[in-house]
Structures are given as C-alpha cells and as structure tokens.
Amino acid sequence: MTEPLSEHTADVIVVGAGPAGSTTAYYLAKAGLDVLLLEKTAFPREKVCGDGLTPRATKQLVAMGIDISEEAGWLRNKGLRIIGGGVRLQLDWPDLASYPDYGLVRKRDDFDEQLARQAQKAGARLYEQCNVGAPIVDDRTGRITGVKAKLGDEKREVTFHAPLVVAADGNSTRLSLAMGLHRREDRPMGVAVRTYFTSPRHDDDYLESWLELWDRRGPQDRLLPGYGWIFGMGDGTSNVGLGILNSSSAFRELDWREVLKAWCASMPEDWGFTPDNMTTSIRGAALPMAFNRQPHYTKGLLLVGDAGGLVNPFNGEGIAYAMESGQIAADVIVQAHARATPAQRELALHNYPKILKDTYGGYYTLGRAFVKIIGNPKIMKIATQRGLTHPVLMKFTLKMLANLTDPTGGDAMDRIINGLSKVAPKA
Ligand SMILES: Cc1cc2nc3c(=O)[nH]c(=O)nc-3n(C[C@H](O)[C@H](O)[C@H](O)COP(=O)(O)OP(=O)(O)OC[C@H]3O[C@@H](n4cnc5c(N)ncnc54)[C@H](O)[C@@H]3O)c2cc1C
C-alpha cells in the first residue's frame, strides 16, 4: 500500500522523544514549522536516570510552560548535600538573576511523557512505537532527506521525508552512526547505575551526593571507586545510584551493580536500602560528555542532547543540556527555514555548532581537565579532606560543578568562572 505523502513529510523530523527531542520539537512547532517527532517506545516508559534536576533544568521546564507546582507532583530541592572526607555539607543553590534557586526531581517515565505531550500540544506530530532505522540519503549530495522506520506493533515499514533531521536518539544514536558520526575517544565518558528503594528518606529536600563510597561489610572498611547519589523522589521511594568516569583506573574492572549493592549494604539500616525494599532492578547506561560526537551539524543532520555528547563532565548532568541544545537547534532551524536560497540556509545551519561551542566549549574544556584530575584517587582524597571544610571554596565549587552563574552582573565567583570558561579553548 502506498502511504499518503503529506502525513509522512514535514519541515523537520526529530528522532527520539527524550528531553532533547521533545524540547526541539516544541520550539519548532511553536514557531509554526511542521514537525514529526518519532519515538521508538510508547509513553510512559522507563529511562535509566538519577531523576535529579538542577536549577538549570528547572529553568528550561518553566520556559516550556510545564506545570512544576508541588500540587502537580513535583518535589522541589533547595540545594546539594555533599558527603565525603568525614564531612557532611549542605549547600543551597545560588541566588542568581538567571536561574531559579530551586531544583526538582521527577521520575523519567512521567517526566519525558510530559515534555512529549507539551511538544504535541504545540503542534508537533508525535509517532510512538516508531523505531527509526536507516537514514535516507541523497546519492548526489550525501545529505539526509528522511528516515526509514518500523511503526506500531505490527512493525509496518514507513518512510518519512524532510529537508532537515534532528538526531535526539540518545547516547547510542544509531542515526548519527549511520551518517558516519562516530564517538570521539579523546572525550570523557561515564557509566552510571541506579535503582529505587522504598525509604523514609523519600521526601529529602536536598539532592545528596557522596564523594566517597565505603564497603563496611568486611572486617576492614574498603573504599570503593565512583561517586554516589541519593535523591528522594517524594513518592515513597529514593533513587540511589553511582557513577564512574573512564579516567578512573577501575572503569573497566568492576561490575557496577555489585559495587552499588556493596555501598547500599553499608548504609544505615533505618534508611531502608535493602534488597527487600528495592522496587526495580539495578540498571545502568553511559554518560557521553563534553561534545564527544561532532560535528553537531552536517549534511542536513543536527545532533542534540546525548546524541551530541552534551553531558556536563563536572557533574554528570545531562537533562538541562539536552533541553538547552534542543532550544538552540530549534532557533537555528527556524532562522534557516526563513532563508531564500539553499546556500543561505546552509550558512544559517552551520551556525549551530558555533553557538554550542561558544556556549559550552570553554566550560567543557575545563571539565575535561577536572575529570583527569579527579581520576587520580590521591588528588581526590586531598581535595575532599581540605576542600569540604572550606565554606567559601565549596560555594565556588557548587557554582562551578553545576554551571550556575550570572553571565553579567554576577558576583566575584561568577566572574572568575565565566572568565575561565571564556579563555579556555572551545574544542
Ligand atoms: C544512571 C544515570 C543517571 C543519570 N542521572 C541524571 C540526573 O540525575 N540528572 C540529569 O540531568 N541527567 C542524568 N543523567 C543523564 C541523562 O539521563 C541524559 O543526559 C538525558 O536523558 C539525555 O536526554 P536525550 O533526550 O538526549 O536522550 P534520551 O533521554 O536517551 O532520549 C532518547 C530518546 O530517543 C529514543 N530513541 C532511541 N533510538 C531511537 C530510534 N532508533 N528511533 C526512535 N526513537 C529512538 C529513546 O527511546 C529515547 O526516548 C543520568 C544518566 C544515567 C545513565
């Protein structure tokens, strides 16, 4: 059977309805473009994540008109609690003109669905259970002009066409790979695992980050590699997980599910992080950091979120950057769409990687240096012992790690961080 052309043709195809894809589709549709948003799964669906949202991500949700009230089920947090070197330090999110002073938590099954529905409300045409396979490429120019997909339970073969395609298909980004865009090995990569427990700690109003993980089960305490988190979900459960960077010597050596189990078994009993209270199995995924896939625009394809390796190397946060890159990509596409000639359109589209580099390039270069330094356990130990007892230094560290500064008119710390990011190479 031949398909109706208009139904499967659009101005832009967005592949993947995670935070990056739904945000891109939302802003494109708001600007009046015809957008197809193609998602392999059906909502609600599980996504392996810590579910923690900093003020950066919160700002993006506000901008998209998502109802983030407590009545709508969102749990707010005031800041970050850091535990390590025998110290427990609670730091509030900074007071800034540019970002709210609170963060949020929300399970990704529901979070991602809300964003996708918001894109749909703005006019994007969402296809769920639409598994995108090969790109359709023009033999003469090498440009992507559409995608092939399998749709629905019956896996019907469908082709979609558009002059521009956005890869928002996450860390594994089969679409980018099929267009010849491979991962840069010189960029940091993390892996993280997490699970949920029913716990009395579920309504914690701080995100909790552990710089040291101890296995206290044997006759002697044993320091485990990696960094952990405990995020209260406000729904009776806590999200507990840990991450490790490939700059660590232990990166390939260990079974991270077992490390998480060992850490949890060493926690105070009344927190309830026991196998009996575990509500889902331990699952993990990769964290692609610091622009580990480039270029972010080539031959009709733009990369957003994890597909473009946009996770912040300082703290493993990816949702805010997925949404911000989606908004930036949409702005660029809307401008390109209004240009009269193909040459003019290309000129506008090639601005996307430049804006990304201007926005994050210097900061990510600093992050890459940071990742190398903390990969050395000796340096990490000294930093934890000395740094955590120094409140001013820790306030600075929080701003640096969470990328929370005012670009203009901020305080001295903001000026130092912005200055360093400006002078660092934007690679
Ligand atoms: C264990 C863990 C904990 C984390 N914790 C946090 C945290 O607390 N806070 C934070 O900010 N970040 C966290 N991150 C990072 C965060 O999860 C990602 O950066 C974020 O999800 C990236 O969004 P995205 O839209 O780019 O990709 P994704 O969220 O991966 O979305 C990609 C979408 O594309 C769809 N898709 C894939 N292939 C296809 C295809 N072929 N056809 C159609 N659709 C397709 C997928 O089904 C999915 O819906 C964590 C990551 C991990 C692994």
Automatic annotation (TrEMBL):
One of its GO terms (molecular function) is FAD binding. Gene3D superfamilies: FAD/NAD(P)-binding domain. SUPFAM superfamilies: FAD/NAD(P)-binding domain. It holds the Pfam family FAD_binding_3. PANTHER family: CONDITIONED MEDIUM FACTOR RECEPTOR 1, GERANYLGERANYL DIPHOSPHATE REDUCTASE. The lineage of its organism: Bacteria, Bacillati, Actinomycetota, Actinomycetes, Kitasatosporales. InterPro entries: FAD-bd, FAD/NAD-bd_sf, Geranylgeranyl_Rdtase_fam, Geranylgeranyl_reductase. It comes from the Bacteria. It comes from Streptomyces purpureus. This is Drug:proton antiporter. Residues 10-324 form the FAD-binding domain. Transmembrane segments: none annotated.
